[in-house]
Amino acid sequence: MARTKKYTPEETLRSLFNLQFIDSRIDNMREVRGELPMEVKDLEDEMVGLNKRLEKVEEEIEGLNQLILEKKNIIEESKSSIKKYLEKQKNVRNNREFDSLSKEIEYQELEAQLAEKRIKENSARIDGKKEILEEIQNLHKAKEEALEAKKKELEEIISETEREEKILMEESLKASKSIDERFLKAYNRIRGASKNGLAVVPVERGASGGSFIKIPPQVQLDIAARKRIIVDEHSGRILVDASLADEQSTKMNRKINKVLSAK
């Protein structure tokens, strides 16, 4: 059975810092995208909403046009009936028949007048709906143009960084293989709980990187000695001394630049 290699605390600290260096570079690349993916998603959702609104208003206009058509048919039917009743009046035998036909004519005239009124009302409603439709169409066009611009911007950023990100992800996986499982789990846990993804930080000006809380002098000496893994009691992050951080940053920059130029 192959023996698992034992790493010294210093080797582990260097490996952890290397992994953090690579992962932070990946984070920075993704940060360049910023809110663009979310902005694209929001615009896409807005477009879906606007399309539904356009469809609804168009359906309402179509419904009103159908009502107008029905009222126009009523008017034509009323005119036809009036014409028929007027012809009949010429041949009535008594006043009662004449009055009865007159009432029918009057009723048809009222029906036609009411239909005309409804046509005017619905025509006015259509004009109002068309104004709303135009506003939505203008907004739709503006959002569509904004979406296309955002998509293009996002695609350009992704195309520029996709290759590098893939290579860095491979390097991150390689770096993680030189770390004991328990420390790798701790690193991932700390990194996952950190807003900026930092699990390993150097001591800067007597404090944990990014913190203003001073680390006791004896603890600083222990960190510099690199004899054990020390976690900041305030931030929960793994601490390394500034000298180690500088050494590994220089090495990792050279290594990554070499790998990127070679692939």
Task: Write structural notes for this entry.
With 263 residues, the protein is mainly α. The chain folds into two domains: 9-32 and 180-262, no CATH class; 36-160, Helix Hairpins (Orthogonal Bundle). It is 78% helix and 5% strand. The chain is built from six helices and four strands. Strands 2-1-4-3 form a four-stranded mixed beta sheet. The mean pLDDT is 91.
List its salient traits.
single chain; 263 residues; mainly alpha; Helix Hairpins; 2 domains; four-stranded mixed beta sheet; 6 helices; 78% helix; 5% strand; rod-shaped
Q: Cα distance, first to last residue?
A: 36 Å
What percent strand? under 5%
Give the ordered list of helices and strands.
HHHHEEHEEH
**Strand arrangement in the largest pleated sheet:** 2-1-4-3
Largest sheet: 4 strands, mixed
Just give the CATH class of the largest domain: Mainly Alpha
Alpha plus pi helix count: 6
Q: What's the CATH topology name of the largest domain?
A: Helix Hairpins
**Helical percent range?**
over 70%
Poorly predicted sequence stretches spanning 5 or more consecutive residues: none
The chain-level structural class is: mainly alpha
Radius of gyration: 40 Å
Count of extended strands: 4
